[in-house]
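Database export, one record per block. Field names are fixed; values are copied verbatim from the stored entry.
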Amino acid sequence: MTAESVPPATPITVLGLGDMGSAIARTLLERGHPTTVWNRTASRTVPLVAAGATAADSAAEAVRASPLVVLCVLDYAAVDEVLAAVGDAASGRTLVNVTSGSPEQARAVQRWAREYGAAYLDGGVMGDPPDIGSGEVLLPFSGSRKAFEAHEGVLRKLGAPTYYGADAGLASVEFMAQVALGYELLIGFLHTLRLVREEGVDPAEFAARAAEGVAMYPPLLKAIGEAVRDGEYPPDLGPLSVQSALMGDLVGHRKSQGVDTVRMREVQELMAERVADGHGDQGFSSLIELLGRRG
């Protein structure tokens, strides 16, 4: 293909210029896309205009400027405000919303997009603004498959996109679950660091050892996921009857140092109940059978 025959880069509009939106717009500019930007606080457009972007006076004007529109604002209250201002200007455009929110909020925007004649992709950005444009940033998407396939090349310039299905809420399910898992892990890690610190152990040295130990968890997580899917619970960490015997010591140790025991007591109680119900030969994964009963 000669230089003269290279197709022009897709014009793109970015609505919302916080740290993430600005990083997205700047990356698109650097990758050669004519980029229109809009932000409620107009001063946020100045650095991007200096870098080659075009600033629009309104959200509707910005949307009319490009066939592909990326929406990246603080929350869904801001999403609703922007979409109310955009209205009919969305017709015939593809709207890619990477604002964090719930699956139902994503589905509501999908319904809005259909009403106004726009293709819709809901997504999330699992990464930090400085990493936009690298493969380290994970981009879950769901909604219009046709839109995803048409613009996957553009989305890949921002990170590593994955399509989860036509239901616009599925990307949010993925995003929220991944982020929640991270916080569950990290708050437990902080409680554990407090425990070892109270016992006079260097937290940094313990953390280095723990980082090596987590190498066992990826295959374990996969095995637990399969067990939950299939409803069959092999003794993943050993039979519950054996695991349960450890819990009193673990809870007692934490109490002795004044460290939080909420999560550990939950595990202790669940294991005891499962063993009492005659499932002591099963693994940790089987505790999921009790979780729904506890609200």
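Remark 1: DSSP finds twelve helices and eight strands in the chain.
Remark 2: The first helix runs from residue 19 to 30.
End of record.
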